[in-house]
């Protein structure tokens, strides 16, 4: 689905993680692939509303340091707009 958005010229993506309770290493690899694809087209990516377990995985893996992660959808949208 995200690849189709990129092919359609969408360069700013917001991923709402509010319903995701767990993310595996395969999911993290998928995110890294998306980050790489967006960098290639000067795109932006933001995440919001992480559940506690997912937030902990992001923190431990260092994703918080290299990705835009915000508590709310509004904050993430503002980060994408800036």
TrEMBL record:
PANTHER family: ANTI-SIGMA FACTOR ANTAGONIST, ANTI-SIGMA FACTOR ANTAGONIST TM_1081-RELATED-RELATED
Positions of the STAS domain: 1-80
CDD domains: STAS_anti-anti-sigma_factors (cd07043)
Tree of life domain: Bacteria
Matching InterPro entries: STAS_dom, STAS_dom_sf
Protein name, per record: STAS domain protein
A Pfam family recorded for this sequence: STAS
GO molecular function, a single term: anti-sigma factor antagonist activity
